[in-house]
Design brief:
543 residues; alpha/beta; 11-stranded mixed beta sheet; 4-stranded antiparallel beta sheet; 15 helices
């Protein structure tokens, strides 16, 4: 395959978005550009992420399970060895592989797989295969004035501080589009890889007022009615099956009719929707750049989310100093000197730069319709993501649906397949573990494909999916078993009826966990207790 024949590849990853938020997956949010990609490409109904920001990014970019990459939990040293929170040298990234195959490599957006936030390290984008990088090293923060804003390896936080019009979602989009245009002008004949990693719609709830206004009243009927309506649309579109029931409303949440502060509650969801809407507008500019440079037809575009909807509130018992000074996730002041009100104070409407709020459990329950649970957990609500693949020269079944299961390491395997790039046994003097994924390229031409067993572990939450069977655990509870052909929403635990199946799948899981370096959760908790850890990411586990 000559360089000119090799497809460009763009991965668009967003942050903390639920399975059914965007229009083409049943949601109320206006996403015309993503809908167009789906209409002219493929949608996958059973593709899975890894339930958390950093592990999903590590797995996506390396084709390995996160425990094999040094990112067992987040980019903090969660110890012991293996969970250092830093992308290791014993793995190879998509840009490193593609760069060796003649690709130019670009990134715009959130990195979040390096422990060092301010000093360049071996885990920074520019040292893991990217020719050019614009974005943030940290995992979350203000959309108006983000911490760790970086170009190449230079801190450029001053660019946001000195520009009243700065909004991070917009600059991620604009930089991605600029990369495409500049590549066409300066590297004709060479293919490119572009990783566009949005922070939207991760908290804080920040959005433009005109975008928020589009959704005024859109969510006034409340989460109970909207969940039912989303499921109906998902079934009507063929994404889900009618026999799969709607999971119950989260037991911690009231019926919407009984909820107080409805104006504040609906405003939260309006801002969340506006965050996704703004991202979709930016994706439109990326598509415009591809069309203007004649590169759309031979570009494989992959869109997905890093985990399910996030039920985390901004905790009342976490002092602002911890978010600002220890975790680098917030700022005390706005750019014009006003105090940032950190926390879900219902007397303050979210959206503006001087707010720092989250949309909460009930709306996350809507985002993950029709599934149970959220980010952190390995039940369907935590790991199910919309996945869109668009490639006019390689995908002819426009608007097709694919129902075979897959997970993040399959993206690396697919890119290797369609580009002809070689996955190395050794890289930069380090032995590299074999790619754990299976190529999804056969699904481009066939609706019927098979996939071997899938495995997950995060914070003790774990699962194995083998064919129609899913064995899953919400740590520290016991294992549950579901027939995913009959009960994808995990409403009927049949583990007591199938003890042999449980034993067989548990043996599969344990063999995988040993091979891939999964550290038992009890061991992690002992280490953290010894360190007297009391950090935000642990507090949020129980929300």
């Amino acid at each position: 395959m000559s360089d000119q024949q090799k497809p460009n590849v763009i991965i668009i990853l967003n942050d903390d978005m639920g399975y059914s938020d965007i229009g083409c997956y049943g949601g109320e949010i206006e996403t015309p550009n993503l809908d167009t990609l789906a209409l002219n490409g493929l949608r996958y109904s059973q593709f899975y992420n890894t339930a958390r920001c950093s592990p999903s990014r590590a797995s996506l970019l390396t084709g390995l399970h996160p425990h094999q990459t040094g990112i067992g939990v987040l980019t903090y040293d969660m110890g012991p060895e293996g969970y250092v929170g830093n992308l290791s040298k014993e793995c190879v990234t998509i840009p490193e592989v593609l760069k060796a195959a003649g690709y130019c490599t670009y990134m715009s957006g959130k990195w979040h797989i390096a422990a060092s936030l301010h000093e360049p390290s071996d885990a920074w984008p520019t040292r893991r295969g990217f020719d050019k990088f614009y974005g943030t090293i940290i995992g979350a923060g203000s959309f108006y004035n983000p911490n760790t804003l970086t170009r190449g390896e230079e801190n450029i936080e001053h660019e946001a501080e000195n520009d009243p019009s700065f909004f991070y979602t917009d600059t991620i989009s604009d930089q991605a589009a600029q990369y495409i245009t500049a590549h066409s002008q300066n590297h004709q004949g060479s293919p490119f890889f572009l990783f566009t990693a949005y922070t939207a719609p991760h908290w804080p709830l920040h959005a433009h007022e005109d975008d928020i206004a589009k959704y005024k009243g859109r969510f006034d009927t409340g989460w109970d009615t909207l969940r039912e309506e989303r499921l109906e649309r998902l079934v009507r579109s063929g994404i889900l099956e009618a026999k799969w029931g709607l999971s119950d409303r989260d037991p911690s949440q009231p019926p919407f009719d009984d909820a107080s502060d409805k104006a504040w509650l609906t405003r939260c969801m309006e801002v969340y929707a506006a965050q996704i809407d703004r991202m979709d507008q930016g994706i439109g500019r990326i598509l415009d750049a591809l069309e203007a440079t004649g590169q759309l037809e031979n570009t494989l575009i992959v869109f997905l989310s890093d985990n399910g909807g996030c039920a985390e509130d901004i905790p009342d018992d976490v002092p602002p100093s911890q978010l600002v000074e220890e975790l680098n996730l917030a700022r005390y002041k706005t750019r014009d000197g006003r105090t940032v009100n950190i926390g879900n104070d219902r007397s303050i409407m979210p959206g503006a730069e001087d707010t720092y709020q989250s949309y909460g459990t009930a709306w996350a329950n809507l985002s993950n319709t029709p599934f149970r649970l959220y980010k952190h957990w390995i039940h369907e609500g935590g790991i199910s993501t919309p996945l869109i693949m668009h490639w006019p020269e390689g995908i002819k079944d426009q608007g097709g649906l694919r129902h075979g299961p897959g997970q993040l390491p399959d993206i690396m395997a697919t890119i290797l397949d369609v580009t002809g790039a070689a996955y190395p046994n050794e890289f930069d003097g380090h032995a590299i573990a074999p790619c754990e994924g299976e190529s999804m390229a056969p699904s481009f031409t066939s609706a019927e494909t098979e996939r071997g067993p899938l495995f997950w572990e995060h914070e003790g939450n774990a699962a194995v999916r083998d064919g129609k069977w899913k064995l899953v655990r919400k740590y520290p509870d016991d294992w549950e078993l579901y027939d995913m052909e009959q009960d994808r929403t995990e409403l009927n635990n049949i583990v007591a009826k199938h003890p042999e199946r449980r034993a067989q799948m548990l043996a599969q899981y344990e063999a995988w966990a040993i091979r891939c370096g999964v550290i038992p959760r009890e061991q992690i908790l002992r280490v953290m207790a010894d360190r007297n850890e009391n950090a935000f990411w642990e507090k949020s586990e129980d929300t």
